[in-house]
Design brief:
Structural class: alpha/beta
Largest sheet: 8 strands, parallel, barrel
Number of strands: 10
Order of helices and strands: EHEHEHEHEHEHHHEEEHEH
Number of domains: 1
CATH architecture: Alpha-Beta Barrel
CATH topology: TIM Barrel
Radius of gyration: 18 Å
Strand order of the largest sheet: 1-2-3-4-5-6-7-10
CATH class: Alpha Beta
CATH superfamily: Divalent-metal-dependent TIM barrel enzymes
């Protein structure tokens, strides 16, 4: 698989302006918008067959679009219920298998909640589960990278330091950096200096290759005392996306940026145009 030479921009799921509600229609629509990729949403389960997956793979390749996928929201590798943990494992395996058939490079997932556990206990449980899951995928020669997402609610496992530590400890695991979540989690991390520091931390702790193979989520976001409340359009939030673009460009970051705003295709175009303007000035 080849890596992006710069930042690519796409949407989380089928854009609302797509003429038909299907992934194949979304790929054609994204191409007309001059966007670069799509994160397929398996958030309510994997609901496509192998023939459809093959059509998606071929269409994305023909159009030069990058694909990733997002695993079901109900994954919780730290649940008190062993049945839920086992189901979460199966959700990730099933999603990774479907993602591979579609030609996705990455599968993003939410690792779980702290519940009654300490952060340290949660880390150990999730680390053990992911090592087992990745061992299965390695044995199956599945090329999809599992990416654990930084989370926006303080009740969720997924601070920046937790994600970095997990990726260092679990072979084959990579981060999905949701900078809007990082902002909402603490109500800060929203300046050029913050964004630059975070990206440099990724480079220092996970290597230069991690900075050149990012998977990023961006959107506007509303938040309160406990963190994330909901996604917003960029223009309706305080998220300083221009500073993020500048920091990423200054560090020569590369990879796929997925926009999760409600009007995701329009905000993705805004982000891409801003990035291209920054690159012209560099």
């Amino acid at each position: 698989m080849t890596f992006a030479r710069n930042l690519l921009f796409g949407t989380a799921g089928v854009p609302d302006s797509t003429p038909q509600t299907s992934t194949l229609a979304a790929l054609a629509h994204l191409k007309t918008l001059a966007l670069d990729g799509l994160e397929m949403e398996f958030v309510h389960g994997v609901k496509l067959g192998s023939e459809t997956a093959e059509k998606i793979r071929r269409s994305a390749e023909e159009k030069g679009l990058a694909l990733s996928a997002h695993a079901p929201y109900y994954v919780n590798l730290n649940s008190r219920e062993m049945g839920t943990r086992l189901q979460s494992r199966e959700h990730l395996l099933r999603s990774a298998r479907a993602a591979a058939l579609c030609g996705c490079r990455s599968l993003v997932f939410h690792a779980g909640y702290y519940g009654d556990s300490t952060p340290e206990q949660t880390f150990e449980v999730i680390r053990k589960a992911l090592r087992e899951i990745l061992s299965v995928l390695k044995a199956e020669h599945n090329p999809v990278a599992l990416r654990v997402e930084t989370m926006g609610k303080r009740s969720q496992f997924g601070s920046l330091d937790e994600v970095i530590a997990l990726c260092r400890d679990v072979e084959g695991l990579a981060p999905c950096l949701d900078f809007s979540h990082l902002h909402a989690r603490e109500g800060k991390a929203n300046t050029y200096v913050d964004f630059h520091r975070t990206l440099r931390k990724i480079e220092k702790r996970l290597g230069r290759s991690a900075l050149r193979d990012l998977h990023v989520h961006l959107s506007g976001i509303a938040y309160g005392d406990k963190g994330e409340l909901k996604h917003l359009n960029l223009s309706d939030s305080d998220f300083r996306y221009g500073d993020w673009i500048t920091a990423a460009n200054d560090l020569n970051a590369a990879g796929l940026v997925i926009c999760e705003s409600p009007a995701r295709e329009y905000d993705a175009v805004i982000l891409k145009r801003l990035y291209e303007a920054k690159r012209l000035k560099s």
